[in-house]
TrEMBL record:
EC number: 2.1.1.201
Segments forming a coiled coil: none
HAMAP family: MenG_UbiE_methyltr
Annotated pathway: Cofactor biosynthesis; ubiquinone biosynthesis
Positions with a binding annotation for S-adenosyl-L-methionine: 68, 94, 124-125
CDD domains: AdoMet_MTases
Species for this entry: Dendrothele bispora (strain CBS 962.96)
Reaction catalysis annotation: a 2-methoxy-6-(all-trans-polyprenyl)benzene-1,4-diol + S-adenosyl-L-methionine = a 5-methoxy-2-methyl-3-(all-trans-polyprenyl)benzene-1,4-diol + S-adenosyl-L-homocysteine + H(+)
Name listed for the protein in its UniProt record: 2-methoxy-6-polyprenyl-1,4-benzoquinol methylase, mitochondrial
Length: 260
């Protein structure tokens, strides 16, 4: 790329992604806080609050690439705190056992531990096993995970398959900053500061370089919205902003779609 990183060949991507998350699993939360200055927490809060889980009764949710359980925990807390809902369930799927382990450890300290409200499953977003049946979930979430997948269309088509008709697909992901000034600052930050923090805090520069690079390669908002529609979902229109919501001018973005 123009930033002088080696580009990762697509066929090597899956193994590499696994290594990246093996290497960052235990430092994952610390690094998230350090690299985003804590902002990822606010984005995740908004992501879940916008979905209002529990408002129309308990939901069956699948949180894919759910790793450390950040989204699952917020869904369960939101439903319980706002709607006294203790029946919503979240199944967490991740390709990486160590990330799931971190999630399990975190949930151990919550009231959801050992209840049917949460469960952990090793699996690939691109090819969910038959354990995840067709037409069976009300809500599918994927946060900061889809850009790590080799085939985004495969992930979307699996999401479509497992959702019930009328069910919601929701994705939180880093995206494109449109403002040129903000964009320059952001480039400086992500290509120098993030790998540096990776080195200092986690002793691992390559993994964080990969993460930054993967953000640049992910399709911009309108293109990703079209991919969601191509998978069969209905989204709002790009013109009225209904297909996505930019966070921080596009540093991150929420896309949603409804299965017809
Ligand atoms: N959703 C969590 C969050 O927002 O904090 C974790 C995000 S973390 C940046 C990305 C996660 O995606 C990792 O846990 C990684 O193991 C997982 N992942 C990468 N490729 C995957 C795939 N093909 N299928 C399922 N999970 C995958």
């Amino acid at each position: 790329t123009s930033f002088g990183f080696q580009t990762v060949p697509e066929d090597a991507k899956e193994g590499l992604v696994k290594n990246v998350f093996d290497s960052v699993a235990s430092k994952y939360d610390l690094m998230n806080d350090a690299t985003s200055l804590g902002v990822h927490r606010l984005w995740k809060d908004q992501f879940v609050a916008d979905l209002k889980p529990g408002r129309n009764g308990p939901l069956r949710c699948l949180d894919v690439a759910g790793g450390t359980g950040d989204i699952a925990l917020r869904i369960l807390d939101y439903a319980r705190e706002k709607y006294a809902d203790r029946e919503t369930t979240v199944e967490i799927v991740d390709i990486n056992a160590q990330m799931l382990n971190e999630g399990y450890r975190r949930f151990k300290q919550t009231m959801y531990h050992n209840t049917p409200q949460v469960s952990f499953h090793e699996g690939n977003a691109q090819e969910l096993s038959e354990k995840f049946a067709d037409n069976s979930y009300d809500l599918y979430t994927i946060a900061f995970g889809i850009r790590n997948c080799t085939s985004v269309p495969a992930v979307l088509s699996e999401a479509y398959r497992v959702l019930k008709p009328g069910g919601t697909f929701a994705c939180l992901e880093f995206s494109r900053v449109n403002n040129p000034v903000l964009s320059t600052l952001y480039d400086q930050y992500s290509f120098s500061i993030i790998p540096l923090l990776g080195t200092i805090l986690a002793g691992d520069r390559t993994s964080y370089q990969y993460l930054v690079e993967s953000i640049r390669k992910f399709p911009p908002q309108p293109e990703f919205a079209q991919m969601i529609r191509d998978a069969g979902f209905r989204t709002g229109t790009d013109v009225d902003g209904g297909a996505w919501t930019d966070l921080w001018g596009g540093v991150a973005c929420i896309h949603t779609g409804v299965k017809l």
